[in-house]
What we know:
The protein has 156 residues and is mainly alpha-helical. It has helices spanning 21-24, 27-55, 64-80, 88-92, 107-124, 141-146, and strands spanning 95-99, 148-152. It has six helices and two strands.
Amino acid sequence: MSQSLTSDPWTGAAPDPLANPALFDGVLWRRPLAYLVDLIIIGLLCGAWLWMVLLSFGLLWALTSLAFLLIPILYHAWLVGGPRSATLGMRLCGLEVWSWEGEHPDFWQALLMAVLFYVTVVCTSLLILLVVLINDRHRTVHDYLSGVVVTRRLAA
């Protein structure tokens, strides 16, 4: 039975891409495009932080490194762990994140996904992202380790 783009989540393991191609069609190119959009938004948020540092006459400068570390991680965790299960870039590109069992991820699972993303990307200079080319669901290492799968947005 093929699953179409409906709002019904699956039960058990994530759907097979060969039996459910609509769920995974275009995910490979949509993910990097979504992240570019997210990078722009994260850059704007970091710029807003710098304005706050200026308005505080430099009193917040000591927290800038921590803020620049937390802003992207919390951006992803808050939005992916929220009710729409997608960052703004993912929403724009028609993607959403699901737990392996077909549930929306909670904040903690989304936080784990975000931390693992940044740690693995920094440690491997983006080479770790090539894993998406060798699996049929186009999952990354941080997807595997956090127990999530990214699919096309399911229609309501």
